[in-house]
Amino acid sequence: xxxxxxxxxxxxxxxxxxxxxxxxxxxxxxxxxxxxxxxxxxxxxxxxxxxxxxxxxxxxxxxxxxxxxxxxxxxxxxxxxxxxxxxxxxxxxxxxxxxxxxxxxxxxxxxxxxxxxxxxxxxxxxxxxxxxxxxxxxxxxxxxxxxxxxxxxxxxxxxxxxxxxxxxxxxxxxxxxxxxxxxxxxxxxxxxxxxxxxxxxxxxxxxxxxxxxxxxxxxxxxxxxxxxxxxxxxxxxxxxxxxxxxxxxxxxxxxxxxxxxxxxxxxxxxxxxxxxxxxxxxxxxxxxxxxxxxxxxxxxxxxxxxxxxxxxxxxxxxxxxxxxxxxxxxxxxxxxxxxxxxxxxxxxxxxxxxxxxxxxxxxxxxxxxxxxxxxxxxxxxxxxxxxxxxxxxxxxxxxxxxxxxxxxxxxxxxxxxxxxxxxxxxxxxxxxxxxxxxxxxxxxxxxxxxxxxxxxxxxxxxxxxxxxxxxxxxxxxxxxxxxxxxxxxxxxxxxxxxxxxxxxxxxxxxxxxxxxxxxxxxxxxxxxxxxxxxxxxxxxxxxxxxxxx
Length: 549
Hints:
549 residues, alpha/beta, Rossmann fold, Arc Repressor Mutant, subunit A, five-stranded parallel beta sheet, 11% strand
């Protein structure tokens, strides 16, 4: 996923892009309107922010993925004539205000509380100089793996190198104006001690939240009592001082000339503050996009320090990166749970969108997530078996390696091999890992009751009567015909093609629980066509003999 490569400017595609309602195009149009009647800057700057206080999580990646989609849409709408850059900015000079729960030795980090994250020793090993450096590297590693085109920036480097000095000196001059913005947002007690400047203690190395005794705009210095009580004066430049996080947002936008930044809903109420400080410091506030937050399986906000929800590496253990990008694209303004159960559906939906793309015209293509995921160049991939079916094939066959799965696949689809369909081979590996780690431990087979035994026997008989090579639709119909003979599974609210009662979904749920040991499963006919009629009948026989539960 990249916005660096040259893009195809097909006239029909450009015409469709001008009308597209896909959210990346809507956001890109805001940036175009920003410069209506004026020249573009040398580079239109897209920025994402990252707080490396804990191990990177998928929400952080989501900002980069989504911003890349907007950047690509902007390039298309401007005919790829305006240079752009994506800056991934790490707030690694922030003090470590608490020790994350998921570090190996929490006690070892206690002496470094409140020091900048790039001054805290790295608890994970691997040769990184600090805790902040380690977490920055984890983020970059994933972004590089995914193929993002970006420039990484460290707050520590920018502050210490002087990149922010000009605007920091301006902040000293505009100190009173910044305080007028900030003080009304604070409680009475906090107002008494608040300062937008946070000095780094020369004695303890900590980021200090202390009141200013003097701000000398002409000298560019601040005076305060250090944490040992000694009055101290420091320059606001050169990394001796940083800004509180709200003023820091606005300062960075002003210093770098940021044109677009998205952030989570938890920042929404503060966005006007960021904007006002940016303007006070001589900048122009960027265009914003506010997205909803990801939740864990219990509906709690995902937190880097808690380590709840999925990590980047966990998702990639069980699914391709494109499925993660799809999850980021879909409904960004809607809160979504992000845990292991969402992975299989995301994988199958990605390949469904990919298959549909080849049949679509430009209007539909530009609304298709895969166009945005692949920056306008989605691959043509044929996938004869879905990921969901692979998972259930693993479940039924107890496969522990891909060769077992390929035995079923090649019989079902002659000529389809790991060599002809490497993408399917990749998914087979993911399916085995996902089954072993998440499905198998929770599988609970149950014994069928008397009426369920009758239904299973009728199902086996219907399958036996099918001709060799019956397809999934024929198998599905045979299963429905068997179920209609059982009173429990007759659904009189539905109607069969013959005019009789339809079949309740309880019939197929029973099959999943009794034969597969799980609550949900694939379309039965498609599964049996892949697994095999004889093998399915053998599974039924095992259940009736009490060998599964």
